[in-house]
Structure formats: structure tokens, C-alpha cells
Amino acid sequence: MVRAWGGISWGEPRWMFGLQILVVAPVVHLGGALIQSRRVSALLNVAMAGIILFLLAQARLILHPLNPVAASPDVEIKMSYNILLVLWALVALQIARGLRGLAPQHEIIMSQ
After folding, report:
1. Rounded alpha-carbon distances, angstroms, from residue 2 to 8, 18, 32, 79, 83
2. Looking at residue 27, what is its pLDDT?
3. pTM above 0.70, yes or no
């Protein structure tokens, strides 16, 4: 923000959206962890998605363009964005694979 606009606009809606999610997401996650119910946890995750969509719809575009990467004429910006996207997707896949390996394996016993 400092480099692009000469300062930090604390009241900028997209900045406030990020701060709101930074507060709400851990609270929702902690609530699901404390209750220890898969159904409640799933409901809280769906509610979190709804909260994100609601807050994002309320955040007006003042300083941020709608899609700055796609609107940029600079090919290097677009390439670096796509490379980072692919790298983070691979990291997420590796984390998911690692967590899957840590999960307890349950044996399904079929009775006849």
C-alpha cells in the first residue's frame, strides 16, 4: 500500500475485510474445536464461507481494481501470479497428503 498509494489507508474496505476475516476465522475455528462435533464443525465452516461472501460483497472497491492481475498489461505480473498459484496449490496438496497419512486408519468390518 505504501509503495502503490503512498501510505496505508486503514479505512479502505478491502483492508478492513482482511482484518475482519483475520479476527472471525480463528474464532469460528476455535468454536468448532471446542465443541468437538463434526456436524457443528461442518456447519461453522459453511457459516464461515457465508460470512466471507457477505463481507466481500459489502467491501466496496475504492483503491483496488476489480482484477488487478488480469487488468495488468505486464506479462511478468501475470506469469508470477500464476506460478505462485500453482506452487501454493502444490504445497496445499502436500499438506493434505501429509495430514492424510497422520489420520488413524479404521478397519471396516463387514458382518454377514
Report:
1. 6, 17, 37, 24, 25
2. 92
3. no
